[in-house]
Design a protein that fits this description.
The protein is α+β, with helices and mostly antiparallel strands. The protein has six helices and 16 strands. The chain has two domains: 96 residues, PDZ domain (Pdz3 Domain, Roll); 124 residues, N-terminal domain of MutM-like DNA repair proteins (Alpha-Beta Barrel), CATH 3.20.190. InterPro entries: DEGP_PDZ, DEGP_PDZ_sf, PDZ_sf.
Length: 252
């Protein structure tokens, strides 16, 4: 029988562990995590911190008890060295790495008193975060939020430092946004053909654009196209009507 467990580690590794009779571990590495320098996808982890990992993913604990091997990592601090013994291509290896902060794509904390946001011609963009999910869907957001957002919240890691999962949160009503009011909390993938890395990056792309039209490619093959000049002219009226002081937060 195959038993699958998803584990997030403070070393910057997400494990999709298939607990098989021969103890096979398939690693998904955090792109910005320190473990990526020594671990590879497909490595079989045999020991961690000097303790042998059993076929059920546990290590020896007190008084003959056993506990999931991630407990060892939970006892370490950022900067500590973690030693591992692994099997790669039928050869045993010993490696070590410095424990680092987990680079989550969807941060667990953010300041909702000063949330990041960007408004472009009535389109409201925000970065996805756990506090945002709670504010949108309640404390039980795990059972109410869209699966596509929960997947990024639970399994997403940054592919480069500072990466954000940018959402088109909602659309403010105006003539320039007619036909797009149904869009709500969908990922922004590209602006005029350029992949969006962060909310600030999107703001810079819009500000520096000289195109006649602004095209936003979204998740699920949704597309928003605004006439650039019309969107610029409409923005002050949209902000005034919705009593919004600025088109973007101070840090964008």
């Amino acid at each position: 029988m195959h038993l699958h467990i998803n584990v997030s580690l403070c070393i910057g590794v997400s494990l999709d562990i298939a607990l098989l009779p021969f103890c096979s571990f398939c690693f998904q590495l955090d792109g910005g995590g320190p473990a990526k320098a020594v671990l590879q996808k497909g490595d079989i982890l045999l020991e961690i911190g000097g303790k042998r990992i059993a076929s059920d993913g546990t290590v020896a604990f007190r008084n003959g008890e056993r506990i999931l091997f991630t407990w060892i990592l939970s006892q370490m601090f950022v900067g500590d060295r973690c030693s591992v013994k692994l099997l790669r291509q039928n050869r045993e290896r010993r490696e070590s790495f410095s424990v680092g902060k987990l680079n989550l794509l969807v941060p667990a904390n953010s300041d909702l008193r000063r949330p990041q946001y960007l408004i472009v011609g009535g389109l409201v963009f925000v970065p996805l975060s756990e506090p945002f999910l709670k504010s949108e869907y309640g404390e039980d957001f795990e059972s109410r939020a869209p699966v596509r957002l929960l997947d990024k919240w639970q399994h997403g890691f940054q592919s480069f430092p500072g990466e954000q999962f940018v959402l088109l949160s909602h659309v403010l009503a105006h003539d320039v946004t007619v036909g797009y009011e149904h869009l709500h909390n969908v990922q922004v993938q590209q602006f005029n053909g350029t992949s969006v890395k962060t909310l600030k990056h999107l703001a810079e792309l819009v500000e520096n654009s000289t195109e006649e039209y602004w095209r936003f490619d979204l998740d699920h093959d949704e597309v928003v196209v605004l006439e650039a000049d019309a969107a610029r002219r409409a923005l002050p009226h949209i902000l005034q009507r919705n009593m919004i002081r600025s088109c973007k937060s101070e840090d964008v």
